[in-house]
Amino acid sequence: xxxxxxxxxxxxxxxxxxxxxxxxxxxxxxxxxxxxxxxxxxxxxxxxxxxxxxxxxxxxxxxxxxxxxxxxxxxxxxxxxxxxxxxxxxxxxxxxxxxxxxxxxxxxxxxxxxxxxxxxxxxxxxxxxxxxxxxxxxxxxxxxxxxxxxxxxxxxxxxxxxxxxxxxxxxxxxxxxxxxxxxxxxxxxxxxxxxxxxxxxxxxxxxxxxxxxxxxxxxxxxxxxxxxxxxxxxxxxxxxxxxxxxxxxxxxxxxxxxxxxxxxxxxxxxxxxxxxxxxxxxxxxxxxxxxxxxxxxxxxxxxxxxxxxxxxxxxxxxxxxxxxxxxxxxxxxxxxxxxxxxxxxxxxxxxxxxxxxxxxxxxxxxxxxxxxxxxxxxxxxxxxxxxxxxxxxxxxxxxxxxxxxxxxxxxxxxxxxxxxxxxxxxxxxxxxxxxxxxxxxxxxxxxxxxxxxxxxxxxxxxxxxxxxxxxxxxxxxxxxxxxxxxxxxxxxxxxxxxxxxxxxxxxxxxxxxxxxxxxxxxxxxxxxxxxxxxxxxxxxxxxxxxxxxxxxxxxxxxxxxxxxxxxxxxxxxxxxxxxxxxxxxxxxxxxxxxxxxxxxxxxxxxxxxxxxxxxxxxxxxxxxxxxxxxxxxxxxxxxxxxxxxxxxxxxxxxxxxxxxxxxxxxxxxxxxxxxxxxxxxxxxxxxxxxxxxxxxxxxxxxxxxxxxxxxxxxxxxxxx
Amino acid sequence: xxxxxxxxxxxxxxxxxxxxxxxxxxxxxxxxxxxxxxxxxxxxxxxxxxxxxxxxxxxxxxxxxxxxxxxxxxxxxxxxxxxxxxxxxxxxxxxxxxxxxxxxxxxxxxxxxxxxxxxxxxxxxxxxxxxxxxxxxxxxxxxxxxxxxxxxxxxxxxxxxxxxxxxxxxxxxxxxxxxxxxxxxxxxxxxxxxxxxxxxxxxxxxxxxxxxxxxxxxxxxxxxxxxxxxxxxxxxxxxxxxxxxxxxxxxxxxxxxxxxxxxxxxxxxxxxxxxxxxxxxxxxxxxxxxxxxxxxxxxxxxxxxxxxxxxxxxxxxxxxxxxxxxxxxxxxxxxxxxxxxxxxxxxxxxxxxxxxxxxxxxxxxxxxxxxxxxxxxxxxxxxxxxxxxxxxxxxxxxxxxxxxxxxxxxxxxxxxxxxxxxxxxxxxxxxxxxxxxxxxxxxxxxxxxxxxxxxxxxxxxxxxxxxxxxxxxxxxxxxxxxxxxxxxxxxxxxxxxxxxxxxxxxxxxxxxxxxxxxxxxxxxxxxxxxxxxxxxxxxxxxxxxxxxxxxxxxxxxxxxxxxxxxxxxxxxxxxxxxxxxxxxxxxxxxxxxxxxxxx
Lengths: 720, 599
Fold this sequence. Notes:
The complex is a heterodimer of chains A (720) and B (599). By secondary structure, chain A is of the alpha+beta class. Chain A is built from 27 helices and 21 strands.
């Protein structure tokens, strides 16, 4: 689904696409002919049935030829300007994708193993749909677990009946590999601390002065109760068995703890518990206060009787070990959904996704660790985890026959699926299309309750569709499944081999990245909408008045730098644009001119053609690298101009003026020397210290001409 | 969680399907009531040092509330108009409503919110409490703030009725234009009023319709007349007016909002015309719903001018301001002025309960309520005339009902009465006395426990000059710090308090501001007496740096990281331009917003 959702959210104009998507296939109903949204049993996995589902999945993956994978996320872009553009440089594009993968949550993971059954000569698929929710599972974990939701994406999921209640209540949590390591380390540290502390003295904590009368009375009462109970134990060791002791007015429930008599402390406030500990410490050598964590996160407090000091030490050791085991078990269970990823990784099967770069980045950021800073580092590390990844969207572009079939069609998953798998009854054989590969879905008959008929944009079903599309694409690549033994890994097939591990970072990147080498190269099949960008020739402008259209910016600049000086202009959002000049020098010329105009507080700045851009006084400009820095910031403002300001406010050096004062006055002088401008200054009443004192009536045209001259002059100086 | 007494009652649940009806009811109830209590359920609250801390001044507390208001999304807003009668026993009549919200982009303009933050711990607590997310997301009511609405109105234009202005002088050109239009319309109209030619071939009738330039508006025939100025619109309207009463002109705008054409609709009778006008009104209402949505409720609250009773006011009202009124201004002063224009009287319930001595220590609303229950006898009859019959009660409703009840009891104890009751002879205080004083909640909001804070209840004011932020101590506890610092510099041998602000940074509060200032000066001049201090990797800064961190909005990192970045940049410049202000060094810190309203 990713391809579709992403395109829906990103591609301009989203409204048209969305309505098309909705009208072409209504999500509900489920009985559509061309839409095989129904009838496919998808196993739903939540917290409750993860353990057994995992066991079953392990077997399924082991015998699978390949595994379909899909993710549903809470959003794709955190602000409109964070969309990936065709014009983006590779590093900028990666930063945008990284931002998306880090900010948004994964809500569903679809995993669908496909096994080749030679007897049936068909694939057998087992779609699984895992609900994910990043819950805080470990008390030691102090990361904030905040995630972003993109309103449009959430609304989109809602239109396809996504069950948010199940997701938030029953979703499976996870720890990434890094988080797990950290948790284990903390655990060991904690354990060491504890064992040290308990072996010395438990006197720590200091005495609490008893301030109020109620505290004193309570302490006395507790002392009496404990004494009575202890005396009873010492005098009549059997009495403990007989149940609750009378003396404590029914306040205590007697139990056994590790074969020793004990009483449960229930219903005391934390302050009272502190007082009780103090009483025990001061008055009873043979009573030990013990706090253990019981089931479902509650802690249980007991007072345990242990008659000798050795026994006491043994008891403490026992408790500590229990605690450690308990904590270890909790870390293990907190790994949660990552077990699925670990499983897929360890089986080294071919993973198939549709337009899956972002999905893979999500998987990495959620289940492995923070995303690396560059795309080739990322590619190499993901290659270690998933050695074979195939992208069906890329596969569609490598085969002539498929391209012909898909011509003029949307490249989205559901469109590819319905094209390659026309519903059997309405199958009109096209001359160019091959017969569909047979695929069966196997549900588990024993427990039908957790199977729900799959629907579009549910991760489990999308993973299934991806796998189906992949199988069909394989037949176009002339791969014979009949020769496939059940244990074979498809990834090693030599017809497929040259097409795997190639992913497009985004639908409009026009490049593919080779995961095995980390190199990104142009995709020959991609049709560019814009001329290739030369990043050294690009200026980033932001903060101009929102009424200024990109066309006007271009016109303004052309007026100053001459027609044809601007190759293209690309609007980032209503507050920012990228301008590509034909010549590289124009970039710094432009920045210098802007700086000069801003410093010159006179008629020049008002009458200059650039004033349209500079109007409002908030306009900023910088080289392309600043764009990268702004994209890499963790801030997220809705408008680019706000974002840029926020980033620049935090790091001043980012936006240092590109010219030093000397140069400016130099340039200024050169403009002033161009005869006429001095008189403007004079007419304004500002005495700019120029020696040139002509009194000439001038017109606007004069000024404009002078500015052109000035620019030319200034350009010459720059070059010399 | 113990089921509180309030759980017995439930509010009217409002989604987009019953919103219009609920708004009408609410309007009536608002008119009849004395006060309105309000509570909101959001997708998260700030964590770590981004919460309001005891060291925060009103200004920094506001900046933090602003951050929370801008990042989190309200999913439910409970509104409860109620009236109080101080007869004995006093009577409380409440009409709780629970509105479900979702910021759906109804107009496809990327509004009201492109994205929002969620805190997973918050969401899972809500889920455990039985919060219905599907209901919220599928059927929640959307909204636009006042500012967003005016932006949207500049972008989307729909055909509308327009008033005919009193006719001005008409030039020759005008009259030629008008007579031409008039004859076109009259000719077209004749085709529909003339004796019906039912026997006509349908082909011929449709052909003739085609020729006369007729279109249809719904089921009614209409024709469209292109115009190119507002002047021409007036002329066409006038022409239509002259011809007949059975024509309804609608002005059709183009993309930029200027009139493009006038669509003249033919109605067959007076009833038909009324029907059409009603239809137009209805579609306008629908459009208005898309523009305003839930904000209708906020506008009602605002225009009713009833005192708003809320808990956690600073957070809830900044949220309401940013979502339903306008983006939050950069400082507290402007916020208060702006808020005042919307809600003139806001009562923070926690300010009210602090007026009763023994209650001062109550940490949260639940604690205050149960304390009152135990210690005071306030007989009260509670009526809730409208019941929804649903058994599950969202936390939000519980809160709004608790606020309502607590306010009722407190106003009884404090003898606060709505103005209308002043005739009873008793000394009554006006609720206005307690208005617009907010407490930033540094209290743990989510704990439902009824424990009282075990700390001294005397809040002392401390100048920001006495505070030093200390970081770089690598996870030492407060106790460890207190024993470790005095060895490093003689300034630490004096009496000071330590409070951890997050896991990386703590605040030291000195009794004597000179000590703090002196220490800061030595730190900035890197005096050799601090060699031990520096070599331990410790760093410190004054309040000015913290203020700057908040103002710049460096919320993304740990406090230590943020302070480090700012202090290295402005090490010496800040010392000169310091302005000290007061904080209330206690968890029960108070912001008297009246100070901010001297405008």
